[in-house]
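User: Hey, my collaborator sent me this sequence without any context and asked if I could get a structure. I don't really work with proteins. Can you help?
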Amino acid sequence: MAFNGLYCILLRYHLVFIRDRKVTANPTVLGDDQRWNAMIISVLPFYLFILKGENMKVIDQFILESVSNISLHPFDEKLYLSLISKHNQQDSHVAFRVNNYDNAYTIKYDNEVCGFISFVRSNFDKNQAFIQIVIIRKFRGRGILQVSEDTVDKNNKLKRLLASIKIKNIASIKAHLKAGFKYFPEDKLNELRLKKNLDKNMTRLYKDYK
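Assistant: No problem. I've predicted the 3D structure and written it out in structure-token form, which is a compact way to encode the shape of the chain:
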């Protein structure tokens, strides 16, 4: 375990270096003083191999924290409407509803607006909250969803996040599953639909936090 901790530290240093210096994986285009630094990239698979298995979740988190520069800011409705219209996102997401602006945020990636996120606490359990998030298409696949949702959970001391997603929105479902969410059991989903607590064209996922 001590060695694993050391490998994690080294991996994180290398990822941060790559992010900050933006080195390339081709030593031939670098000066002599930079070629050693470029070799950092080539040794990453070695770290991942050593830390495979149960430690991969730790590595995923290190990667997200190291290569991402993600921050949450006060929600700007006018900015949201203009960007969503510009990027034609209306048909691919559930309508973004904000009941409390204190619980809504603008997401920035490297100081550029990349999405929006908000949450509403459950009426039955204040430790649970329904989350909704919109990521502009060109920023998807960078781990922004997971970092943003985990940050909202941590800052508000929640125990569980709930995500109601259109069944046809496969991309969003896959992104949430990759971020650690799980499906509710089918019998529970059917019960929610019968009670009119979940539309028939929607599914629901959850993620528990310690």
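In plain terms: Residues 18-38, 62-67, 89-94 have pLDDT under 50 and may be disordered. You can pass these tokens on to your collaborator as they are.
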